Amino acid sequence: MDALAMADKLEAEGNFSAAASMYQQAAQANPGDARPLLGLGEASWLWATTAQPASLQRRALAIEPNNLDALRGIGHARILLGQPQFAVTQYQTALKIAPNDTRALNGLGVAQDA
Fold first, then answer.
1. Cα dihedral sign for 45, 49, 55, 59?
2. How far apart, in Å, are the Cα atoms of 72 and each of 13, 17, 28, 45, 76?
3. Cα–Cα distance between 43 and 39 in angstroms, integer?
């Protein structure tokens, strides 16, 4: 089982610190793949703070500029960091890519209400 698959398994089991470690290994082994960074961001949300996941999602977005998970994740982080005006921009960008994305529509509404 490769590091990414192992990280996904650990996260599904609720072992977020171990999953974060495995995602980090996968990211180092595959620097051109956004998936380990997104997984690391998700595991970090569930395990640690909001600043690190936002940074990881921005890195993932640099690799894949149209990645909806990264755009929505950054929007979510901005809301949690008390920056809803920046979240609005992320969700609007996501909706340009996928106009009917319910998660982006929901996030946009939350950001606009914040």
1. negative
2. 24, 22, 23, 13, 6
3. 6
Instruction: Give the Cα separation of 102 and 9 in Å (integer).
Output: 26
Q: Could you tell me if 25 and 6 are in contact, meaning their C-beta atoms sit under 8 angstroms apart?
A: no
Residues 6+ apart with CB under 8 A from 26: 2, 3, 4, 7, 33, 35, 36, 39
pLDDT of residue 51: 56
Global model pTM greater than 0.85: no
Q: Is the dihedral of CA 69, 73, 74, 76 positive or negative?
A: positive
Decide: helix, strand or coil at residue 101.
Answer: coil
| Gyration radius of the chain's alpha carbons | 14
Token pair of 96, please?
């340009």
